[in-house]
Amino acid sequence: MARRTLLAAGMALTAGAATAADDGVPAGGRLAFRVLRKGGEIGSHVLDFTRTDDMVEVRFDVRMAVKFGPITLFRYRHTGIERSQAGRFLSLETQTDNDGEALRVSARREAAGVVVEATNLASRKLPEDARPLTHWNRACMSAPLFNPQDGKVMKLAAAPRGEEAVALANGSTVTATHYTLTGEATLDEWYDAASIWAALRATAADGSIIDYRRLVP
Q1: Pairing of strands 121-126, 88-98
Q2: Cα angle: 76, vertex 80, 82; to 5 degrees
Q3: How buried is 79 (Cβ within 10 angstroms: 0-12 exposed, 13-18 middle, 19+ buried)?
Q4: Is the pTM of this model over 0.85?
Q5: What confidence tens digit (pLDDT) does each residue in 108-144 have?
Q6: Cα 105 from Cα 115, distance rounded (Å)
Q7: pLDDT greater than 80 at residue 20
Q8: CA 24 to CA 199: how far, in whole Å?
Q9: Which candidate, 94, 202, 75, 91, places its Cα nearest to that of 149?
């Protein structure tokens, strides 16, 4: 599997701005997903949220491994911290082990835009409404996006597809709004009635399907 395949599914993977009461933060403070490929589990994606007044901090940990019998063909680890205030992106720090390739990204809001610094990438200033595609906040669906793994600008277009029932990890379903993202990657995202991230589906470079199944709730 190509290195950028799991990036699209795991992260690096856009309608309306969220309000403070409808900003994608789960009541329990945690979101966790099983990551499936060809029906088999290959990893997990866990997000822990801390809210202080109108500030939100999200710590995330993505782990994936694709194996053929006892042989590991691909290994991926992505961790980071994202901060926002009143729904507005403030900063991001990430570290990634992309099958042996070490990457770091640092992004922060400044007076005239969002400054992004990353491994093997010159520092650049993006528009004031830019934010990382970290998936959990539906505000990503209407913002200029950059990749939280490598810091590059992402060229994606999002389109709403209506409400559908999507599967959870325990076999039950939840009604969620479906968005399709197309461009440099092909992704499908779902958000439930409370704007909480509910599911993700990506088509890998080899044609296989990668699915996120949310642990209840």
Answers
A1: unpaired
A2: 140
A3: middle
A4: yes
A5: 999 889 999 999 999 999 999 999 999 999 999 999 9
A6: 11
A7: no
A8: 13
A9: 94
